[in-house]
Design brief:
Blueprint lengths: L1 E3 L11 E3 L1 H14 L4 E7 L13 E7 L1 E3 L5 E3 L4 E4 L9 H4 L3 E4 L21 H7 L7 E7 L2 E6 L2 H7 L4 H8 L4 E5 L2 E5 L5 E9 L4 E13 L3 E7 L4 E7 L32 E11 L5 E9 L3 E5 L5 E8 L1
Parallel strand pairs: 1-2, 3-4
Antiparallel strand pairs: 4-7, 5-6, 7-8, 9-10, 11-20, 12-19, 13-18, 14-17, 14-19, 14-20, 15-18, 16-17
Helix pairs in contact: 4-5
C-alpha cells in the first residue's frame, strides 16, 4: 500500500494509507469547521496579558487571577475559561479584539443565590418599585399617594431652606414672620427643697432682638408663697416688667397680691381655695452682641404643693423686633 499525505483525503482509496500528519490535519479541519471547543492551555492573568491569536473554539483556562486583555481588560479568577468566538482572531487587548472573546466564570464564590434575597440584598418591594418608576427632575420631591404608589411634588428652594433650619427662629426668618413660643401650664407643682421649684419656658433671645413676654397663671390652691419669676441671665440683656396687681403691706389672705415676682403667702394662712390670677408682661431686648438665655417660670417659694389650673395658665414669648 502506498502512503498518502493528502490532508483532505479526497482519494478515498483502499490502496492508500494516510500518514499521521494527514490524518491529524484532516481531523483538525473537521473540528475547526464545527467551531468545537479545543483546549489550548493555561494563561497566567496576574500580569494582565493580551489575548493570544486564536480561532473560534480555542479555549484557555486562567491559572492565576488578574485581567485578560491588558490593564483595561476583563477581570478573571483562577479557573475561569477564556474562549475565542471568532476564527482568525489576532492577538490584542480588550479594545482591539475583546469582542472576539468571552470569559466564562468558573469560581462562583459570593454569587447571589435565592437564599440571599431579602437577607443580604433587598427583596422586591412595591414601594421601592413605585419610587423607581418616577422620573426625577429639579425641585421635585417624591411622596407616596397610597400603598405601592408614588408621585412627585414641587419642593422649592425656600421649602428646602426651611426644612434645613434647626431652630424656630431660623425658620421664621425664612418665612418673614416673627416667632412665638407658647407653653400651657396645669397640674401640681411641688417644691421639695427650700429653693424654688419651677416649671415654665426657657428661650433664646438673639442679639439685636426684642421679645414680648406674657405670663398668666390661675392658681386654684396653694399652701406656700408662689407666683411668676422672670429672669434674664445676661447682665447686658435689659428687661422692663409690669405686674397687674399692686402690693400692699402685710399678708393678703383672700385676694391676689404680688411682691416683686412672688405672690405673697404665709404658712400660717389657710390654703387658697378660690382662683387666684397672676399676670406678668415683660419686654426683653438683647444688645449684648451674642444670644442670651431668658427664663420665665412658675415658682413655689417653699416646700409645698400648688395647684395650677390648666387652660387658664400660659406663658408666651413673642419676638416683636429684630
Amino acid at each position: 500500500l502506498a502512503s498518502d499525505t493528502d490532508t483532505s483525503l479526497t482519494a478515498n482509496s483502499d490502496l492508500r494509507v494516510a500518514t499521521q500528519k494527514a490524518v491529524k490535519a484532516y481531523v483538525d479541519q473537521i473540528i475547526a469547521a464545527q467551531d468545537a471547543m479545543v483546549f489550548k492551555g493555561v494563561i497566567d492573568c496576574s500580569a494582565n496579558p493580551n489575548y493570544p491569536a486564536a480561532n473560534c473554539g480555542w479555549t484557555y483556562r486562567a491559572s492565576v487571577a488578574g485581567k485578560i486583555g491588558g490593564a483595561s481588560g476583563v477581570v478573571t479568577q483562577a479557573g475561569d475559561i477564556i474562549l475565542c468566538m471568532v476564527d482568525g482572531t489576532a492577538s490584542g487587548n480588550q479594545a482591539t479584539v475583546g469582542t472576539s472573546w468571552t470569559v466564562i466564570q468558573a469560581n462562583i464564590d459570593g454569587a447571589l443565590t435565592t437564599l440571599d434575597i431579602g437577607v443580604t440584598v433587598q427583596a422586591y418591594a412595591a414601594n421601592l418599585a413605585a419610587l423607581a418608576g418616577l422620573t426625577s427632575a429639579a425641585d421635585q420631591m417624591p411622596y407616596f399617594t397610597g400603598s405601592g404608589a408614588a408621585a412627585l411634588t414641587t419642593l422649592t428652594s425656600l421649602a428646602r431652606s426651611i426644612l434645613g433650619d434647626s431652630t424656630q427662629i431660623a425658620a421664621c426668618n425664612h418665612l418673614g414672620v416673627k416667632p412665638k413660643a407658647v407653653v400651657g401650664l396645669g397640674g401640681d407643682v411641688s417644691n421639695a427643697t427650700t429653693t424654688l421649684a419651677t416649671t415654665g419656658m426657657t428661650f433664646t433671645v438673639e442679639d439685636g432682638t426684642t421679645y414680648l413676654v406674657t405670663a398668666h397663671l390661675t392658681i386654684q390652691s396653694s399652701s406656700v408663697a408662689c407666683g411668676i419669676v422672670f429672669d434674664v441671665s445676661a447682665s447686658g440683656c435689659a428687661s422692663d416688667t409690669n405686674f397687674n396687681h399692686a402690693q400692699s403691706a402685710g399678708v393678703q389672705t383672700g385676694g391676689a397680691s404680688a411682691s416683686g415676682s412672688i405672690i405673697s403667702r404665709s404658712a400660717g394662712v389657710p390654703t387658697i381655695n378660690t382662683d387666684l390670677p397672676c399676670s406678668l408682661t415683660a419686654y426683653v431686648k438683647n444688645a449684648t452682641g451674642s444670644s442670651q438665655t431668658a427664663v420665665l417660670q412658675f415658682a413655689a417659694e417653699t416646700s409645698g404643693t400648688v395647684k395650677v389650673i390648666g387652660g387658664k395658665s400660659f406663658i408666651v414669648a413673642e419676638r416683636i423686633a429684630g
